[in-house]
Amino acid sequence: MNYDSEQIDQNDEDADLAEERKLLASLIE
User: Fold this and answer.
1) Which residues of 7-23 are buried (b: 16+ CB within 10 A; e: fewer)?
2) pLDDT confidence bin for 22, thresholds 50/70/90
């Protein structure tokens, strides 16, 4: 159970990073 929670947290972090990259890319263009 603990492992599942950590895995979900990691996925959320990855999604946040991807969103930030999209925002930065749109600002630069």
Assistant:
1) eeeeeeeeeeeeeeeee
2) very high
Token pair for residue 17?
């990073």
Residue 20 to residue 9: CA distance in whole angstroms:
17
Spell out the residues 6+ positions from residue 25 whose beta carbon is closer than 8 angstroms to its own: none
DSSP result, 1-29? -HHHHHHHHHHHHHHHHHHHHHHHHHHH-
Q: What pLDDT, in 10s, does the model give residues 6-20?
A: 776 777 888 899 999
